[in-house]
Structures are given as structure tokens and as C-alpha cells.
Amino acid sequence: MTATGHPTAAAILARILAEPREDTHRLVYADWLEENGDPARAEFVRDCVSVLARHTDCPVRLADLTRSRPVPLRCGACDYCQSRRRAERFHSRYSWFGGNYAVCFEPTPLDGPVPDGPGLTLVVSRGFVSAVRCPLADWLRHGPAVVRAHPVEWVTLNDREPMELARRVRGHDSSWAAPDREAVYVWYRATMEACRTGEPDYIPDSVFYLMPGCTPGYTLHPSRTLPLSIRYDSRADALAALFAAALAWAKAAPVRPA
After folding, report:
1. pTM of structure
2. pLDDT by residue (tens digit) across 122-159?
3. HSE (CB half, 13 Å, CA atoms) of 83?
């Protein structure tokens, strides 16, 4: 709070981070931005909140939806279209943070899917970054800074993939997967240097230990101990555990200097 009793930008941002689904805090932040010399971003936050709430207001979009058009058109004249146009114009030139990245809107139910490129993609929703898609190295570099300024709810590491292992013969090693599963999906703990070799199932220990289900390492040969592993019954479970751990790591990690 300031001496006059008004909340500071840091206090409002803390509320947004703590309650990312609550639009009231975002609109209060927009008021603060306008009162403190940043009317362009204030308008952007308001437009983004309006766009998500009113995405069915455009008659052309609704007509295209009934025709099952893959990418619905817009009329360009309604309040939704005008807000969307202003928001797109702003976010295409706004510097979200240092570095190279792509920016796109979180799709409404009438939009197509979010683009899935190989680099760093920021997904913007209701005025802030809500999700990130990127390689592991980019997340380790930029993640802590992004989550301190934006209510990120999801991160996708697009260069990581768990190893799929077939279920062993029952009676020899049934611990690999439940009896009704055909395979188990495994992450391996590794040093950051090992992760740079391109092995997509290697996870640095700082993130690895935040995933549920860590199991002791096992020995293939007395002179060689394999990395610790985490096993999941489905690929979806394995990826969800990794993404949640990556987000938790970023929220606790220190921000790297620019």
C-alpha cells in the first residue's frame, strides 16, 4: 500500500499471481497502469479480458461456427472485433521480456489451436502470459523471470519426451507397469551436461526431484549404476508431471541476470 492507501503495482501483481482466474485484479492493475502513465497496456489488459468474455458476440464468427469452418472469420465492426484488433496490434509490438520468442493469443472456443513451433512461444490470455511452450534450456534460462511477472499456469517443454518401455514378462519384472498396461513411461535424472546431449528423456535433477514418484536407482552391472528413474503408466501422466515440476522449479528458482 502507498501512503494514500492505494495498492502498489507489486501488491496488485501479487494478487494476480495468487489468483490467476480472477479478472478483478487484472482490471485493477489496468487502472493502475493508466494512472501511472501506461494507457496503452491498460487498454490492452481491458481488451484481453473483454475478448475472452465476449468471444461469441461476433455474428460472423458464430455463423462460421455453425458451418464448422476451421478458422472462423470476423465481421470487424462489433465490439469484440475492435477489442481483438487493438489487442493484437499491441501484443505484436510489446516487449514481453528480453530474447527471441513468438507471441500468440490463448485460443477461445472459436479459434484454432495455439501454434506449436520449435522455439519459445508465449501464450497471452487476459493481458498476461498464461502458458509457455519452449525447449528445456530456454525454460531454465527465462522461466523464473517469466513466472514472477506473469500468472503462468502451464508450461510445455517441447524437446522432452519420456522413454517408452514395453511391459516385462509377468513373473520376471512386473514392477515396470501395472498388469493391464502395455508400457511404462520413464524419465531419467541427469546432470545439465547430459541433458545437452540431446537425450529427450533426461531431466536435470533440479526439476527431476520435484516430480512425484521418484524411485531408487537400479543396477545393471556392479560397476555401473543407471540414473534414478521416475515411471508413469501413461505418456500423458509423465508429461503432466514434468510440466508441473518445471513450473514449480521456476517459481522457486532465482532470476538470472539479463
Report:
1. 0.77
2. 888 888 999 999 999 889 988 999 999 999 999 999 99
3. 22
